[in-house]
């Protein structure tokens, strides 16, 4: 197990984290932009107006994409477990 292997595993882990967080962060960003635009047009400056819809939408997105996220995490974990004999050598 060399430095290249460790860097590759860390790289794959970081890419996986970014890929898994992308749907929730993207939808949260989009909803936040829409609500900010609505607040700018109507001049309503209420903090809960931005917080509550974003939380609800992000939770719904996580619930909707959770099977996909779990399958990616299981595949990554399985590949790490399968690679343990090669790491020891």
TrEMBL record:
GO terms for cellular component: bacterial-type flagellum basal body; plasma membrane. GO terms for biological process: bacterial-type flagellum assembly; protein secretion. It is found in: Cell membrane; Bacterial flagellum basal body. Pfam families: Bac_export_3. It is a multi-pass membrane protein. Its main location: membrane. Keywords: Bacterial flagellum, Cell membrane, Cell projection, Cilium, Flagellum, Membrane, Transmembrane, Transmembrane helix. The chain crosses the membrane at residues 14-39, 51-70. Role in flagellar biosynthesis. Belongs to the FliQ/MopD/SpaQ family. This is Flagellar biosynthetic protein FliQ. It comes from Candidatus Saganbacteria bacterium.
């Amino acid at each position: 197990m060399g430095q290249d292997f460790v860097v590759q595993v860390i790289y794959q882990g970081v890419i996986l984290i970014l890929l898994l967080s992308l749907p929730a962060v993207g939808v949260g960003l989009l909803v936040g932009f829409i609500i900010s635009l609505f607040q700018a047009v109507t001049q309503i400056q209420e903090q809960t107006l931005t917080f509550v819809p974003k939380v609800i939408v992000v939770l719904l997105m996580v619930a909707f994409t959770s099977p996909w996220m779990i399958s990616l995490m299981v595949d990554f974990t399985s590949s790490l477990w399968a690679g343990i004999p090669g790491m020891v050598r």
